[in-house]
Structure prediction request, 749 residues.
Amino acid sequence: MRHPCGQLPRPPLSTWQHGGVTSATHSTLFPQVPDSADAILDGLDPEQREVATALQGPVCVLAGAGTGKTRAITHRIAYGVRAGIIQPTSVLAVTFTNRAAGEMRGRLRQLGAGGVQARTFHSAALRQLQYFWPKAVGGDLPRLLERKVQLVAEAAARCNIRLDRNELRDVTSEIEWAKVTQTVPADYPAVVAKSQRDAPRDPAEISQVYAMYEQLKRDRTVIDFEDVLLLTVGILQDRHDIADHVRRQYQHFVVDEYQDVSPLQQRLLDLWLGDRDNLCVVGDASQTIYSFTGATPDHLLNFRTRHPRATLVKLVRDYRSTPQVVHLANGLLAQARGRAAEHRLELVSQRERGPEPAYTEYADEPAEAEGTARRIRDLIAAGVPAGEIAVLYRVNSQSEVYEQALADAGVPYQLRGAERFFERAEVREAGVALRGAARAGGNDSLLDDAQGLPAEVRAVLSTKGWRSEPPAGSGAVRDRWESLAALVRLAEDFERARPGATLSDLVAELDERAAAQHAPTVQGVTLASLHSAKGLEWDAVFLVGLTEGMMPITYAKTDEQIEEERRLLYVGVTRARFHLSLSWSLARSPGGRSGRRPSRFLNGLRPGSAAPGSRSAAGGSGGIERPLAARRKRRGPALCRVCGRTLTDAGEMKLMRCDDCPSDMDEALYERLRDWRAVRAQEISQPAYCVFTDKTLMAIAEAVPGSEGELAGIPGVGARKLGRFGAAVLDICAGGDGAEEPAEGDEEV
Prediction:
């Protein structure tokens, strides 16, 4: 029997607890269209069913990660349409990306509910603006400015304010933020101060550029994407006849990802609604990670205050992740503070048990990247598709070391949300500058006071925006600095590996590295920032670089900013279905000072750590895995095997002697090893140092190992390289030519 408003009584538990509920994520590509309205409700759990059958009045759905929110709201719309309660053309469903809107339309068609408008806020507003502009204003709608950067640049120039390319991007983003928060140019400095926002330039300067940008748009009769929302709001406010027309057209509204609504979008939604309340909103305050763009969870959290009679449904059954992953996600939010944390959802996994999350501490960043690549290769060998694996990091500049490690391991990968490291504009510009300085040599005045290769690189890159201290705030300027800083660190590591190397040597190495990382476009492991991973999921997720200063990021200062960083990590954790790995490194580079600490967000969660606010936990690291290299580094100082002095330089530590202590190296063996390395590097299309560095070859030529155990004891010969090159090296040490068959998998590199 059907209840009022088309609602149905809940089904017996057996229909959803014992195989009736299907996963929210792995659905059939072309499912059969349900043959009736009631059939649309089959397979929904009780809470999803409650959403689907609540068709009148305000409805607020608090939906945790992986709980099937899109499934619930599309079934809600489809049930209303198929039951004859809702006309498909009277529904407007809005979300935040074209991808999400397209997915929603596709699901509705599969449920037999075609004709429903599912759009982004901007798309829906633009459609209305184009239709009503001739009536409301007259003439043609002004041309839409696809990219506002050029006009912002002209506005800055007219204000006699110089902006480089990255500052230009940041100021453009700041203007967008001001407009979606309905901040006019004159009020911008005061609003920035009140909100404690990190502005990329002096707020007074940005206010000037913002005002000039608006003037130039008016002069040229163009509008931008934010104007689309503003103008639609203006027309609906001023023309009651047009507002009534829109409200007659749309009777039911659904808003997905409601925690990401900006004040301007909420204002437009209110005008669409008028005095009606047939509104269903879906969101999760714990996934608010875009406040820097103007998004705020306040509208979600205040929904029942504005709509006291609203139906509230909480979706907490997680169909995506294993109980182990869900337990970690819940524990992470249990430590959260602030208003959003007060409304957190306790997820309940609906999957079978899986592996425990792995916590791994590494000695340095290269070791972390190599260890991650090795684990990924093991997963692929065990049957996990490369496309179902992701490496997630906080900022895009972290990708380079993982690109290299995956390339070394022969694992295909793809970058999401960023260019490949060596294809980034700032990296290409830096390469040109370094190449020019290398050609000029001693004739370049920039290098007059630079002593050593890293100092020379710092001097050259200082002309491209690198400084010893990172810029304040986030955005393009920070990303540019991070890329240049990665090149500086590369130079430091290169000099350690090759003392006395010149700028020309470094440029040659950069060219080799760029060539080695240029892989064909294939389906592979995803490398992505945590922000760009929102809305996606994988079977296996590696969360890397989880140290203080990176997670939370250094420029997160206020309590609100720190909590958003915690939510960002939560989003990363909840992307994993089965396998989850969390890792950090104690030092940036091999031999560096081990002064880093794991992220505070892992306190009380990782084995052996103390909960926030308590004293350090007794005992060691519990279940934290420390690779052999990391454990060996803490056994005590490395001593020179000739004079006994403590070694601190990474190159000396590889040789286990001081550079100026006498060497007993077999020169002929060293040359044979170098010749073999050159051939091997060419065969696998990798730089020579990716086979073995010069220091490692020197150490081998001094030790002349006769067994795998002796070779493995030489610093620089890890388990992967031992398996890959060990037989050939031992053959050369025994007097052979190293012409061994390549290790399994080398042919595919």
Notes: The chain has a mean pLDDT of 82. The two ends are 64 Å apart (CA to CA). The first helix runs from residue 14 to 17. The chain is about 45% helix and 10% strand.
